[in-house]
């Protein structure tokens, strides 16, 4: 009995909902018919006015009513299609923060960039102090000594270049470029241990890693990787080349050297060795 009662209540509810939906549908149809009638009357009034047919007193009244209906109908039709006003033009002032680096600012590298700039500022102060300690003497200018070492390196005078870079380091122990280029001189003289040592020192100074020192880190990594490969430490060399490839992912020579290293690690019978890439004085 309880189930029957619930079923009847359910059916009654469904019937009530259905009747309500039917009533709403009928009301909607009535409104639509009324709207269509008004529109037809408005169109007929417009057509009659355009034809200029003769009108009597009663016809004039009908036309006035039709014109009024036409105006109301047109107003109702245009109500929903009113265009938004045209937006007025204006100018927006844009200012940009000063950037010491060529690349766009990235919040994730902001602290590293600031630390690197602070180190560069300290290095410039050290150079200036060295110059002021002996005015007019280039022997106390680490930058001049480093440039002199690069000139010797390009001439193939590796011993003199090493002496010049060593003198620059004595005046400025944080000059990463002097260590990196001295490492290249050691490589030219086939002293791979010294090359790896100076490259490692350069990498410890090129911190934090940022866009400004990316090229210098790439050179130091490649030089140390080439030296370690000559010393048959293929695993460490592969790690350096892989890190360098992250800095320069489009470097095809790095990709080839990594492939050679992987082959050497799989078989010691191969005689191929990685190329000593990026060996120019920088």
Structure, explained:
The chain is mainly α and 282 residues long. It contains 10 helices and no strands. The chain has helices at residues 2-51, 57-79, 110-133, 142-155, 158-171, 176-188, 192-205, 214-230, 234-247, 252-266. The radius of gyration is 43 Å and the shape is elongated. The N and C termini lie far apart (98 Å). The relative contact order is 0.06.
Q: What keyword list fits this structure?
A:
282 residues; single chain
Summarize the structure.
It is built from ten helices and no strands. It has 282 residues and is an all-alpha fold. The termini are far apart.
Strand content: under 5%
Low-confidence runs of at least 5 consecutive residues = 275-282
- Taking all residues together, what is the mean pLDDT? 78
* Largest sheet data: none
H/I helix tally: 10
Helix-strand topology string: HHHHHHHHHH
Helix content, binned percent: over 70%
Quantity of strands, as a count: 0
Shape: elongated
Distance between the termini: 98 Å
Structural class: mainly alpha
Gyration radius from CA atoms, angstroms? 43 Å
Task: Summarize the helices and strands and which ones pair or pack.
Blueprint: H1 2-51, H2 57-79, H3 110-133, H4 142-155, H5 158-171, H6 176-188, H7 192-205, H8 214-230, H9 234-247, H10 252-266
Helix pairs in contact: 1-2, 4-5, 4-6, 5-6, 6-7, 6-8, 7-8, 8-9, 9-10
């Amino acid at each position: 009995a309880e189930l029957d009662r619930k079923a009847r209540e359910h059916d009654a509810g469904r019937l009530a909902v259905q009747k309500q939906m039917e009533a709403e549908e009928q009301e909607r149809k009535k409104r639509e018919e009324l709207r269509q009638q008004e529109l037809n009357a408005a169109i007929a009034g417009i057509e009659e006015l355009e034809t200029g047919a003769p009108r009597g007193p009663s016809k004039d009244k009908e036309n006035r009513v039709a014109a009024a209906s036409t105006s109301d109908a047109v107003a109702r039709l245009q109500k929903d299609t009113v265009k938004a006003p045209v937006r007025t033009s204006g100018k927006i002032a844009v200012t940009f923060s000063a950037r010491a680096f060529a690349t766009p600012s990235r919040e994730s590298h902001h602290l590293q960039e600031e630390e690197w700039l602070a180190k560069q500022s300290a290095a410039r102060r050290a150079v200036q102090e060295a110059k002021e300690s002996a005015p007019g003497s280039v022997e106390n200018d680490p930058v001049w000594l480093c440039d002199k070492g690069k000139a010797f390196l390009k001439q193939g005078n590796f011993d003199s270049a090493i002496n010049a870079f060593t003198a620059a380091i004595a005046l400025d122990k944080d000059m990463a470029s002097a260590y990196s280029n001295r490492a290249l001189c050691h490589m030219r003289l086939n002293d791979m241990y010294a090359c790896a040592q100076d490259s490692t020192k350069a990498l410890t100074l090129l911190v934090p890693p940022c866009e400004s020192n990316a090229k210098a880190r790439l050179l130091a990594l490649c030089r140390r990787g080439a030296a370690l490969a000559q010393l048959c430490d293929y695993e460490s060399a592969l790690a350096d080349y892989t890190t360098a490839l992250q800095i320069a992912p489009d470097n095809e020579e790095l990709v080839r050297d990594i492939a050679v290293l992987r082959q050497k690690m799989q078989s010691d019978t191969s005689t191929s060795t990685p190329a000593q890439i990026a060996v120019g004085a920088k």
